[in-house]
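Response to reviewer comment R2.3. The reviewers asked that we include at least one raw input/output pair. We reproduce the pair for 3-oxoacyl-[acyl-carrier protein] reductase here without editing.
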Amino acid sequence: MDLGLKGRTAIVCAASQGLSKASAMALAREGVHLVIAARRREVLESAADEISSATGNRPKTVVADVTTKDGRDAILAACPAPDILINNAGGPPPGDFRKFEREDWIKALDGNMLAPIALIKATLDGMMARRFGRIVNITSHAVKAPVAMLALSNGARSGLTGFIAGLARSTAEHNVTINNLLPGTFDTDRLKSNLAALAKNSSRAVDKVTEEIRTANPTKRFGHPDEFGATCAFLCSVPAGYITGQNILIDGGAYPGTF
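Raw output as returned:
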């Protein structure tokens, strides 16, 4: 399928690893001109090298913390008029909500709600004026099925979800779509850290906890980041122009509900 994206421009946040890197890789394969951002230069440049080697399309890199205004300004200076915006930031740490202080909640909101909103605010009107825009927010399956130890993520990402629900319908007539992608258990460093925390909290071996979570999924495996990246690229495509305001769960069927 031709996604109709060749020559488009995209910002991909937190793209040095994991699901954002996979999304950047998928967009690069479609001929999108990329600006990828992350905090750690060495890891970011390595990701750019990997994308370039696999696709022949080298992204521009911006070392920046997307949760700060200076970081967002640096990203937007490198790509002031993107056609595509992929929002993501490192998830907040797991833990017992009783141990979190106000600063922990503010940090979670800054990363997983307020930073995406700020980037949308900075880029949305230009997309609407040009009559093409695709915004995808990488959130979490915990938005739909909250996980107790991910209290910070549950709260912050649900706030973003509510905001997007109110915004997405107002942009659709201008050919600008806004959707949320809700990943389940994908084979990433973030999953490994969450499994380690779960094992520690339950006084069990990491290998045992990992196997339990893996086999509990209907697919009997964890998702591959490339599967996520392909879904993200499709949501950014021309053929996906009639999909907006949706929370798309990509979790191997783990969520048991009908709706």
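Helices lie at 18-29, 41-55, 69-78, 102-130, 151-171, 189-202, 206-216, 225-235. Strands lie at 9-12, 33-38, 60-63, 84-87, 133-138, 176-183, 247-250. Further pairs are available on request from the corresponding author.
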